[in-house]
């Protein structure tokens, strides 16, 4: 019965995903040294030398590195942080942080992009990585804007882990992947994992990357400025979906799940309760807690103890098959990534330490250099992404790392298909169907509850 929980269920799931990602073994192509990945910026070398020490205290006193002693220091820093976030272009292409992280939603939707295009075709949203990559060289052409207007995705240049090469382009050390803009609501103050693939360690590193890549800065960036931007993002009310969340960031009580008023909202809540499946009924109800298994904790962005996979509660990366489905829909947009030195290379019958993944976006695996978690059933690397926080979710569409779900209804339909696959019976038990089949009513209930999350 408890298919996810049985070894057979895990193997079944592993085999399905194996098939979806089409993995195979091959010889090791020659590895190359990392090449610079800031092709467009004249200041690249200067900026690349700027290192932010890990764990540097926010609001540290500029070049001296000491704490700000003057009582007005934090206020001045906050105001300067606001100016930098909203108005500073660093001598680049005209973009500021706010170009992509709007005040109200922390992101940009296709509707926003279309409205901005109607108002001003020269809006810096559309320059550089906001424009189409017509010739496939990995850079926007600066002239066509179809992708931004229809999907609101940005061309991200992602450095490859030293274990990873691209099959048809073995010299490549960077790949360009179109990704949606995750909201800056709640994340800066409350989410330790930064970027959809978790590749940045601190807000300061993140801001430096954005200024260099998205804004194409031509003047040096001071460490102090990065700290001021970080401080502003952690404190200003515009970066929180509710007062309760802002209080929580300052040490107040953790926000609870809304209770729901209508029957539909209350039924939707059942999917988000930290509970195991209900075995007191026949057949057991596996829908109870089905979303909470990954969307638990104050921000609904971590796994709980009921996720039927061998990952500890509180883990932050999983795949919900977004890249897998997208690869099936758009095979031409997928690339084959070759992962070398894989200790778990056991499923393809050729244990040469090489695993290939064909995917539109392998996510976290490009950063960890490990794709082999399908064998151990943890699903927290290959095609895995940061588990999205869900507070304020009704305002921040489109959804998923590629903006492929335009509405919460699309998200619910995505999860209907996801659960049909992951909760299906093992192959040796073909008479039994999947144990989590979301009905139209379930999908409505889930959407009704998601809209309550503040
Ligand atoms: C061209 C649009 C663009 C600009 C300009 C931009 N960002 Fe972003 N931002 C993105 C995208 C796209 C991502 C996610 C990329 C990824 O995960 O690969 C992101 C991610 C982030 C994240 C992490 C969010 C999360 O959920 O992990 C933060 C914080 C952030 N940006 C802050 C900033 C700051 C501060 C600036 C200005 C210094 C800035 N951004 C400028 C598009 C932009
Ligand atoms: C196995 C873990 C897991 C389960 C179970 C799960 N999610 Fe997710 N959820 C994720 C991950 C990981 C992402 C990010 C996926 C991506 O972008 O590729 C995500 C993304 C989302 C998003 C989009 C957020 C955004 O800002 O783009 C919504 C909404 C969501 N989940 C709702 C749900 C609902 C509703 C359920 C139950 C029906 C559910 N999730 C079950 C892991 C999970």
Shape: globular
Share of helix, binned = 25-40%
Strand order of the largest sheet: 4-7-8
Number of domains: 2
Order of helices and strands, N to C?
HHEEHHHHEEEHHHHHEHEEHHEHH
Any low-confidence stretches, pLDDT <50, length ≥5? Answer: 1-69
Give descriptors for this structure.
454 residues; globular; three-stranded antiparallel β-sheet; Cytochrome Bc1 Complex, Chain D, domain 2; alpha+beta; single chain; 2 domains; binds heme C; 16 helices
What does this entry look like structurally?
The chain is of the alpha+beta class. It has 2 domains: 226 residues, Cytochrome c-like domain (Cytochrome Bc1 Complex, Chain D, domain 2, Orthogonal Bundle); 152 residues, Cytochrome Bc1 Complex, Chain D, domain 2, CATH 1.10.760. The protein contains 16 helices and 9 strands. The strands form 4 sheets. The protein has a 3-stranded antiparallel β-sheet with strand order 4-7-8. Strands 1-2 form a two-stranded antiparallel ribbon. The radius of gyration is 23 Å and the shape is globular. The relative contact order is 0.16. The N terminus is likely disordered. One heme C binds next to α4, β3, α7 and α8.
Quick rundown:
With 454 residues, the protein is α+β, with helices and mostly antiparallel strands. It folds into two domains: 3-30 and 253-450, Orthogonal Bundle (Cytochrome Bc1 Complex, Chain D, domain 2), CATH 1.10.760; 44-111 and 155-238, Cytochrome Bc1 Complex, Chain D, domain 2 (Orthogonal Bundle). The chain has 16 helices and nine strands.
Architecture blueprint of SSEs:
Elements: H1 7-21, H2 44-48, E1 60-61, E2 66-67, H3 73-87, H4 97-100, H5 110-119, H6 146-151, E3 153-159, E4 164-166, E5 174-180, H7 187-190, H8 203-213, H9 223-235, H10 243-249, H11 263-270, E6 317-318, H12 322-329, E7 335-339, E8 355-359, H13 365-368, H14 373-376, E9 385-386, H15 408-422, H16 440-450
Helix pairs in contact: 3-9, 8-9, 11-16, 15-16
């Amino acid at each position: 019965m408890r298919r996810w929980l049985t070894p057979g269920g895990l193997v079944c799931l592993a085999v399905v995903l194996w098939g979806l990602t089409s993995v195979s073994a091959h010889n090791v192509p020659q590895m190359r040294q990392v090449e610079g990945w800031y092709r467009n910026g004249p200041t690249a070398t200067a900026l690349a030398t700027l290192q932010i020490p890990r764990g540097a205290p926010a609001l540290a006193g500029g070049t001296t590195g000491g704490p700000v002693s003057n009582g007005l220091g934090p206020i001045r820093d906050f105001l300067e942080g606001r100016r930098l976030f909203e108005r500073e272009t660093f001598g680049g292409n005209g973009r500021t942080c706010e170009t992509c992280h709007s005040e109200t939603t922390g992101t940009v939707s296709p509707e926003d992009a279309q409205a901005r295009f109607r108002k001003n075709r020269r809006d810096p949203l559309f320059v550089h990585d906001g424009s189409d990559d017509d010739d496939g060289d990995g850079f926007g052409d600066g002239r066509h804007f179809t992708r931004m207007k229809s999907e609101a995705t940005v061309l991200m240049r992602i450095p490859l882990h030293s274990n990873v090469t691209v099959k048809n382009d073995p010299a490549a050390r960077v790949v360009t992947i179109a990704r949606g803009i995750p909201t800056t609501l709640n994340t800066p103050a409350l989410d330790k994992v930064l970027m959809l693939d978790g590749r940045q360690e601190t807000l300061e590193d993140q801001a430096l990357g954005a200024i260099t890549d998205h804004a194409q800065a031509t003047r040096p960036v001071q460490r102090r400025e990065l700290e001021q931007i970080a401080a502003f993002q952690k404190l200003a009310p515009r970066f929180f979906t509710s007062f309760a969340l802002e209080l929580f960031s300052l040490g107040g009580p953790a926000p609870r799940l809304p209770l729901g008023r209508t029957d539909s909202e209350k039924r939707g809540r059942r999917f988000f309760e930290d509970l195991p499946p209900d075995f007191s009924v026949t057949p057991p109800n596996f829908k109870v807690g089905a979303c909470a298994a990954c969307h638990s904790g104050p921000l609904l962005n971590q796994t709980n103890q009921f996720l039927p996979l061998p990952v500890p509660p509180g883990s932050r990366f999983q795949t919900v098959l977004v890249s897998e489905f997208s690869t099936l829909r758009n095979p031409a947009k997928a690339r084959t990534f070759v992962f070398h030195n894989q200790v778990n290379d056991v499923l393809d019958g050729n244990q040469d330490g090489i695993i290939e993944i064909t995917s539109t976006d392998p996510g976290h695996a490009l950063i960890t250099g490990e794709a082999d978690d399908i064998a151990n059933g943890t699903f927290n690397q290959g095609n895995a992404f940061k588990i999205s926080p869900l507070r304020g979710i009704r305002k921040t569409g489109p959804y998923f790392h590629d903006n492929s779900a335009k509405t919460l209804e699309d998200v619910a339909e995505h999860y209907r298909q996801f659960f049909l696959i992951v909760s299906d019976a093992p192959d040796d038990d073909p008479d039994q169907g999947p144990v989590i089949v979301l009905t139209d009513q379930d999908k409505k209930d889930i959407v009704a509850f998601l809209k309550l999350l503040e």
